[in-house]
Amino acid sequence: MVSWRAAPAAQAAVGLVLGLWLGAASAVDEAPPSPGDRHSAECVAALEALSEALALRIKAGQGDLRPQLLSHLEQGAAFIGAAYLNGERDEARSRALLDAARERQTALSAAELAQRQALCADEASNLLAEASALGRAVVGRLARRQMDKLLDR
After folding, report:
1. Running along the chain, 153 residues long, what does each successive block of 10 average in pLDDT?
2. Which residue of 21, 33, 94, 100 has the fewest CB atoms within a 10 Å radius of its CB?
């Protein structure tokens, strides 16, 4: 029997076959997004808006806000990671959900947006607390890459 640790090529091949099979199945059976999917997209959009505002302040000279920016980026990445672990693999569908959430977010007042951001940050903190060490490491790496992109613009 081949060990999964010893055979990354086998893992890749199985992953490709499963991905193609699941992709074909999902193309036939495209269910509408669940309330949980929409909620995750709304949280990612809310935390994204908060992160972009912090990035502007950092670029304006408030470098002491970097840890706070990284924390919010990690929180957004936690929602993305949770969606992935829950089976969301369709990037186009995920982007469409996020775009729709961004659009709906424009109708919120500043107070409503701030409330959503706070609630989503708390929820993301819980997701991160429940994540494995590997999951937290992946989220941290994704957040650092996103922070570099935001601050290099």
Report:
1. 38 40 45 90 97 97 97 96 88 94 97 98 96 94 96 87
2. 21
| Alpha carbon 73 to chain centroid, angstroms | 9
Q: Among 50, 84, 85, which Cα is nearest to 70's? A: 50
Give the contacts of 78 (CB within 8 A, at least 6 positions apart): 124, 127, 128, 131, 139
pTM for the predicted model, two decimal places:
0.77
Sequence-ordered list of residues with C-beta below 8 angstroms from that of 54, at least 6 positions apart, any chain:
65, 68, 69, 72
* Residues ≥6 apart with Cβ < 8 Å to 80: 40, 44, 94, 142
DSSP assignment, residue 47? H
d(C-alpha 110, C-alpha 106), whole Å: 10
Instruction: Indicate the Cα dihedral angle 132, 34, 94, 39, nearest 10°.
Output: -70
Contact of 137 with 126, CB cutoff 8 Å: no
Quick check: 46 and 122 in contact, CB under 8 A?
Answer: no
Gap between the Cα atoms of 7 and 107, Å rounded: 51
Query: Which token pair is 67?
Result: 């840890």
